[in-house]
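Human: Cast an eye over this sequence-structure pair and say how the chain folds.
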Amino acid sequence: MTLPDTLLSFLAAPTPNAWVVRALKHPEELLIDHANCEKKAAATAVNLLFRYAGHAELLDKMSRLAREELRHFEQVLALMKKRGVEYRSLSASLYAGRLHQHVRQQEPGRLIDTLIIGAFIEARSCERFAMIAPHLDDELGSFYRSLLKSEARHFEDYLKLARQYSPDPIDQRIAFFAEQEALAIHVDDPQFRFHSGAPAELAQVTA
């Protein structure tokens, strides 16, 4: 599947090749943190269901999204079991926190920012699935490619909801978070995670 131009242009910068190099050196962490990401995505959707109970379209979209993310979580767990990878605790990626620290506290700004961040997380996930899939074995590569359509749809749903519930245009806010998100994926993270940045030394080698 070719990624939509709207998704690629939404991201201010592509994932550095150094992230792929690092991911291939940490196959177990890739799967475990992928499972964690699916679980967290479902939890985020459910949290929005409870926090914004009066938003009818949000309820519909987030309910569907939560079910789909949990299904993906189950699929990753099944792959891990098949490969003898034990699901274990991993420290959280710093990526989401780097974005959420900029969320406005007053409504509707809080909701709009949260939805915009959701769109960036889904778009980046989709881009990384597409980027790493050709380097994986047939089973895992096929699985990651199968996720592209749903991840792209989740990106579109989050962005559509952000525009729908904002009383003002959100282009400037999107541009702000695009800059923050691009910075987040280039940070020299000490540990590999699905959304981590790339080590500076690898980024130099593979640039």
Summary: The mean pLDDT is 94. Residues 56-82 form the longest helix (27 residues). The domain at 26-84+102-190 is CATH 1.20.1260.10 (Ferritin).
